[in-house]
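idk why but the lab printer keeps eating my pages so im just putting this in chat instead. protein + adenosine monophosphate:
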Amino acid sequence: MNKKTIESVDVKDQRVLMRADFNVPLDDNLAITDDRRIQSALPTIRKILEGGGKLILMSHLGRPKGKPEDKYSLVPVAKRLGELLEQNVPLASDCVGDVAGALSEGVKSGECLLLQNLRFHAAETIKDKEAKQDAEKRAIKDEFACSLADMADIYVNDAFGTCHRDNASMFTVPQMMKGKPRVIGYLVKKELEFLGSALTDPGRPFVAVLGGAKVSDKIGVIDALLPKCDRVLIGGAMMYTFFAAQGIKTGKSLVEPNFVDEAKRLMEVGGEKLLLPSDSAVAAKIAAEAETQTVEGSVPEDMMGLDIGPASIGAFSDVIKNAKTIIWNGPMGVFETPPFDRGTMAIAQAMANATANGATTIIGGGDSAAAIDQAGLSDRMTHISTGGGASLEYLEGKPFVALEVIDDA
Ligand code: AMP
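predcted complex ->
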């Protein structure tokens, strides 16, 4: 994807509206538990500030229902960003309206303003398909986007984690800023380069490791990766839908009965490329103190399969060891509850070893990124994506309309 980047514009004394993805996890006291998404936006932010731009930042946080909610306020983000930049980051109490308008007018060159959570307005998340069918929704979305677009001379998209959405700030705002520079930031550029080159020119063997709860979420990506990869390894709860497809008993494991036929089809398409676990760690309940056992094949009737077993860990690690490119999305088991984290931690270690041996290792964000963090191996991967959903859709080959409206290089 050949898009104009922040490198190509002179931001001096220009009002720059930058969409970031500051959707960071918060604990019960509203303290940020992982600031990676803020850190990842810093190179673009610094470039704009050091270039003398007047920076207006916008983002969403969480899933508020179209109105203000304290727990989704960007106050903690403004504070953390201020600490990282070592400069004051004022927060406008709303992202549009008189207050936001006045504050955005007052931003001086080399300074920045953060707008309050975009999703405090229902207009932000109106899908374009809905807006096309409903004139009132179209008007609401456009009016909201217009208020944001009017604030600036330059539009920057550095919100990779939201690039798969056609939210007003991602899609309608740049549409409305046609004729003004519309560029991507360094984070989006880096994410597209890593994911893109893995898909188009991977070092081989090229291996995908896919896990997580539901096979229904991953069918698209399995279909897209099977022709491109040399091996596709399947773990997580979704392995049990594949077990069911082979007539292997799954006990009380999480199975999606409506997707057993799809699993059968994927096994036929994948043939030898598709590697399923041979054994599982099983227990009667998901609890740290639960008694666990390893079983080969069938899961006993009163048990749940909660992790891949030791033989599968060995087989998967061998494949990873010999790979030159590895993409991982989705944990191998219930990694949040030890001992069901063993499979996921072992795969994280195998990935780290592969990186050390010269392989390119890419983590597709979300839970896999959290697991790598839990393993203390984050700095031993080639690239950890900031967008779980976005990287998955990118790997599936779905077009990102939010990037289509960015100027071509
Ligand atoms: P996803 O969002 O689809 O990537 O799924 C991540 C979730 O899948 C995590 O919360 C894991 O605890 C869960 N998970 C992984 N393996 C299993 C399993 N065998 N049984 C139940 N949940 C699982």
